[in-house]
Design brief:
The structure is a single chain. The protein is an alpha+beta fold and 337 residues long. It folds into two domains: 98 residues, Phosphorylase Kinase, domain 1 (2-Layer Sandwich), CATH 3.30.200.20; 224 residues, Alpha-Beta Complex (Aminoglycoside 3'-phosphotransferase, Chain: A, domain 2), CATH 3.90.1200.10. The protein is 49% helix and 16% strand. The strands form three sheets. A five-stranded antiparallel sheet has the order 1-2-3-5-4, with helices on both faces. Strands 6-9 form a two-stranded antiparallel ribbon. The radius of gyration is 21 Å and the shape is globular. The chain starts with a helix and ends with a helix.
Length: 337
């Protein structure tokens, strides 16, 4: 049973002694994925969020988030065109901890709403993250990965998925060809959020106002922050807006984003096999089969037609991204990353 807003408010005042709460209300049903949470109103009119993790994965992500938020100094934040929440305080509770953050204004939008100016704003927001200096990541002791290390990690996921004997040969062959294409992996690693989905963004009107979830902050492949956009109506707009800011130095970022999108389904399969959950396994196998069919049909019809092959890949990636839109599913599959 979720804690009441009043109980969470009491925890918040213990975590932040100077906080004078005059109002508290639930967010949604009172739970946010793997968290109990509430929005609090201080006597000064400012708003705060309190979150209590309800699973080991959520607790681990919360710990990572706190490390990242501390690494994002005022100077770093000033380079971003949106707000990043700040840590305010914490207090032990029930074997875990309640954490209070400053509230960032804005609302979440489903992925299919990202078109037009909102897609432009999302592309600019991601580009701003990738333009941050990488030095602060290393200084904070966060991961700094080379293209070789990144590729090695992806190959590990592919190999583990292949070992289940449940991935269609069409996809295995496609993934193998991608890993052998050295041009794909000639990119300059950047600062990345590492876990961006449509649910990560907060917006007001057509402007991105905030970005949530920083527990995967690192130096890595910029394509990792872009794969979610493949399922949006304004996919091209997101990428075009991103490239306008970042330039065209990474010409393969779109293709790598497709790979990340497809491998999210592979991770879901691996999670299902690890948990011995036949429902998850069956769900993942169905998605992988649909992905393979989508790619194979269009490529066979238009053999040698690069544009058509890219269109087929985008269709397949959109399918996987749409299938993986559930926050709970994403969180579970990330456990095998």
């Amino acid at each position: 049973m979720a804690r009441s807003p009043l109980t969470l408010a009491a925890l918040a005042t213990s975590a932040v002694p100077e906080l004078d709460v005059v109002g508290a209300s639930v967010i949604g049903s009172g739970t946010d994925g793997d968290y109990e949470s509430a929005i609090l109103t201080g006597r000064d009119g400012r708003h705060w969020i309190i979150r209590v993790p309800t699973s080991e994965l959520a607790e681990s992500e919360q710990s990572g988030d706190l490390v990242a938020l501390r690494a994002l100094s005022a100077g770093v934040r000033s380079r971003l065109p949106f707000e990043v929440s700040s840590f305010a305080g914490q207090v032990p509770v029930g074997g875990t901890r309640a954490v209070v953050y400053e509230f960032v204004y804005g609302s979440k939008q489903p992925v299919d709403v990202y078109d037009g100016e909102l897609a432009v704003s999302a592309g600019r927001a991601i580009a701003a993250i990738h333009a941050l200096p990488t030095s602060f990541i290393a200084d904070a002791g966060l991961p700094v990965l080379s293209p070789t290390e990144i590729l090695r990690g992806l190959v590990t996921v592919m190999d583990r998925a292949a070992a289940t004997n449940l991935v269609p040969a069409t996809l295995l062959g496609r993934w193998e060809r991608c890993t052998e294409n050295s041009v794909l992996w000639q990119f300059a690693p950047t600062v990345i959020n590492g876990g961006i989905t449509a649910d990560s963004f907060l917006s007001v009107g057509d402007e991105i106002t905030g970005l949530l979830g920083w527990h995967n902050l690192s130096v890595g492949d910029p394509a990792r922050d872009l794969y979610w956009a493949l399922a949006s109506a304004g996919s091209d707009t997101v990428f075009d807006s991103y490239s306008l800011v970042r330039g065209a130095s990474d010409r393969q970022v779109h293709e790598r984003a497709l790979i990340y999108s497809e491998l999210e389904v592979a991770k879901w399969l691996l999670h299902g096999t690890k948990q011995r959950d036949t429902e998850i396994v069956d769900d993942a196998v169905e998605m992988l089969t649909n992905l393979a069919d989508s790619v194979a049909i269009d490529m066979n019809r238009n053999l040698g037609d690069t544009a058509a092959m890219n269109a087929a890949a985008v269709s397949a990636a959109a399918l996987s991204s749409a299938a993986l839109s559930s926050a709970a599913l994403r969180a579970r599959s990330s456990a095998v990353d």
